[in-house]
Amino acid sequence: MRHPSAPLVAALLCLAVPAVAQQTPIVLKGTVVTMDDAFTVVKDGGVVVQGGKIVSILKAGEAGPSGAVVINSKGKIFPGMINLHDHIAYNFLPLYPVPKHYDNRDQWPGGKLYEALVNNPKTLVTDPGYYDKQTEALKYAEIKALAGGVTTTQGSPTDAGTSGILVRNVELPNWGRDKVGQRGLPIDGMYVKGIAAEKASVAKLDAWLFHLSEGMLGSAYSRREYYNSAYTTTKNPGPNNQAGLKNIGVVMPQLVGIHSAALTAADFNDWKATAGSPPKVVWSPLSNFLLYGTTTDVPAARAAGGIVALGTDWSPSGSKSLLWELKFASVVNTQKFGGKLTNKDLVAMVTSNPAKIVKWTDKVGSIKPGMVADLVVIDAVNADPYKAIVDAKESHVQLVLIGGDALYGDEKVLKSAKPSAALEVVGSPGGRKKCIDLKRTTDYYKNKPVPKGTQTLAEIKSTLLDALKYEPATLAAILNKGRGPTGDKKPRTTLKAWLSAALKKVNKPVPADVGDANANISAASVQIFLDTKFPNRKPNVPLDPIYQQGDTAYFNAVKANLHFTQGALNLAAYLKYAGP
Amino acid sequence: MADWLVFKLAEGKWGRGDALDSSVVAEMGKDRGAAEAAAKKALGTSKSKAQVSSDEVGVRVADASPAEVVKIAEAVEKAVGGVGISRMSTNEWWDRDEFTSSGAAEVLS
Predict the structure, then answer these.
(1) Which residue of chain B comes nearest to A198, CA vs CA?
(2) Which of A89, A287, A498, A580 could form a disulfide with A317 if both were Cys (CB 3.0 to 4.6 A apart)?
(3) Mean pLDDT on A382-399
(4) Within an 8 Å CB–CB cutoff, is residue A199 touching chain B?
């Protein structure tokens, strides 16, 4: 991929007209799909947004406040989508060709292909000991999320450059609350040793998202993460003595089972009885099918009274946004669940259900006066409002607002909502130019400066692409400069120590610059380090394109997955969306 | 206010990570008493609602702000050597310097 030159970057900026005051109300006209408890739909209505909140919902023909910016969308207005499962630090990476069938999540991390296309690029690009571009990786991922109408995501590391801007991150403090937690690691000996404090900490949360039983439906190995009848307290917990959540008493009302893909109907019923409340599940069907060839028994979870939200998981084996996960979920519903889920159910899984799961129903997930104005406006691609969003592609996303702030959308619409902003072009899916108001010098919550807040999308892309080259000279310069204002040399010291030990172990000479703790490290020595520590790395892994719409390589990779070539699903109903 | 774990960093560990595991943690062992005492002394008699306890893994600091946990971590570090801070609700971890210099403490306050 070419890097845009400075003149090209300038040309890509959508020129904007003078500012309106921030407090100027915005009236979004269109069919309002509220996702409230009554599933109220206001045909040809409107939503008045001011001061970051939803002020009122207009009926058909009702005028908004005078002086408002009026956007006649002729489309449908939804609550912003909430993605309750993601690992966004990986989402600059493309879908990788899952090489075989797996039974459980402990089988696929590793191997040359995984290292080259997933683990190595994520580690080398984002880790503070290497190229250290976490902020850019996260920001790029959040732009992809916005492009798919997502306003809240999950699984984001704390990062001063992104945590308070763009998409909300569910485990970070929001509105003065810090009550959502997560755990991606299995239960190990260290966790069990501190179990009293861990349980007390979970008890204070509104939601604790745990990667639970990720594997093939019914996998005995994966089901052990819920309950292991063979677990014994006489041995240290670990892979050979897996403590299930029930074994250690953390099947609590706060538990949200990310994936829960191996669990059976009996497990979901047991969960309900044990927790004293119905299961809460995050469903990532595409990632499940690509890795395991099956997915969560959603009807069984619902039959146990469970509440289900959708999540994309991550870009190496998932959808780029919820807009696309909805389509895949719809196909799974038809072919595997006997059509038990309605389109309304599916839309609830990306709006009101996740809000219920994390207890944010007073803030987001539905459209009501007084709620925070996290909204997405979509073309009326279908008369049925719920089918409309299931059918919509990125080209149909007209506008995305977070906290009333119009961040992303059609160039013309975004300019109407926010005339003063210097908008940047993101792309043109389906031939419709989409812009973003990316630059943020202060964060949403504290009005504090944001590091790297003035980066353009072009700069973010070129920074990531540069890092993905794995140039030894670049890394040597980073290490020799040191971290932060003090030039902390810990990264270099650590790297030298590791390389010295590795070379001595195989009786190879240690270069002088590596042996001398205070010397600058040379590019040649960094090359030796990279070849030793990351032998399977593949330079120039491409950035995942922002739009799934028209991403031929993406859909080809899905089609080629062995579960689908062996008939796990008929993909025709999914691939009909694959065109530009 | 959040819950935190202040732990001894394993040899050669620094920086930050998405998920705290046993490769990052050197268990307290015989330093447990000194670490907990230092933490409690650092918390002092302030009106803070924070509570300090300890187990084999490290010093647990409940209901504390990032600023409070930094103060406690500094005291524990003086008592037992290099420490890290983990946010218990998410398992993220940072070395003590990184927690403040990266802006994480500010984001989480």
Answers:
(1) B88
(2) A287
(3) 98
(4) no
In Å, how far from its chain's centre is CA A43? 31
Taking CA atoms, what residue in A is nearest to B14? Answer: A490
Q: Is A5 a residue whose pLDDT tops 90? A: no
pLDDT band at residue A15, thresholds of 50, 70 and 90? Answer: very low
Q: Which residue from A171, A189, A497 is facing B12, i.e. has the nearest CB?
A: A497
Residue ranges covered by each domain of chain A: 12-80+365-454, 88-143+179-337, 472-533
Q: A with B: how many residue pairs have Cβ under 8 Å apart?
A: 102
Q: State the nearest Cα–Cα gap between A177 and chain B, in angstroms.
A: 9
Q: According to the model, what pLDDT value does residue B46 have?
A: 66
Bridge partner residues of A426 (DSSP): none
Q: Which of A242, A202, A282, A165 is nearest to B107 (CA)?
A: A165
Each residue of A201-254: pLDDT tens digit?
Answer: 999 999 999 999 999 999 999 999 999 999 999 998 988 999 999 999 999 999
Q: Are strands B51-54 and B59-64 parallel, antiparallel or unpaired?
A: antiparallel
Contacts of B69 in chain A (CB under 8 A): none
Q: What is the dihedral of CA A508, A510, A511, A517, to 10 degrees?
A: 170
Output the pTM of the full model. Answer: 0.95
Domain A12-80+365-454, CATH class in plain words: mainly beta
CA B10 to chain centre: 14
For residue A119, what is the DSSP state? Answer: I
Burial of A168 (0-12, 13-18, 19+ CB in 10 A): buried
CA–CA min distance A371, chain B (Å): 23
Q: pLDDT category, A444, cuts 50, 70, 90?
A: confident
pLDDT at residue A99 is higher than 50? yes
- B12 CB neighbours in chain A (<8 A) are 494, 497-498
